[in-house]
Hints:
Tetratricopeptide repeat protein, coiled coil, TPR-like_helical_dom_sf
Amino acid sequence: MGLFKLLFGSNQRTPNRKNNLSKNHPKNYSELKQKTQELKAQNKKWETDSKKMISLRNRGSELEKKKQLKEAIDVYLESIKFGEEETNKLHLYNYAHDIDRVIILYSKTKQFELLEEFLKRNIEKYPEYNKIEKWQERLTKLEKKK
């Protein structure tokens, strides 16, 4: 075997490689195109869900500014319910702010029984949440008050 052949291989073309590429290309392209369309549809769904979540959060914030705290709680609870049940595209971190607002507003409105129930449910439901210690600490303080 010569040095040229060793470094650069044979100068003969491999027709099988070219045929293999042309045979697989349309299949791979159609699969890629289909997956791209699926991803676009999923992104559109996520965008729609995210916009609804943001709209609910903004409405809750506006109600808080107007001192309509019980109405704000209802809106935040609606946002949480939407995030938990009606969409599979959003994650806890998309509506964790709303959970925190409900906790704060339950305290402000002195709805301690609802707050305790809400904290217990969320601690049980989201043990992987990175700020769960805040919820546990708040629940402990609440239980000590009894």
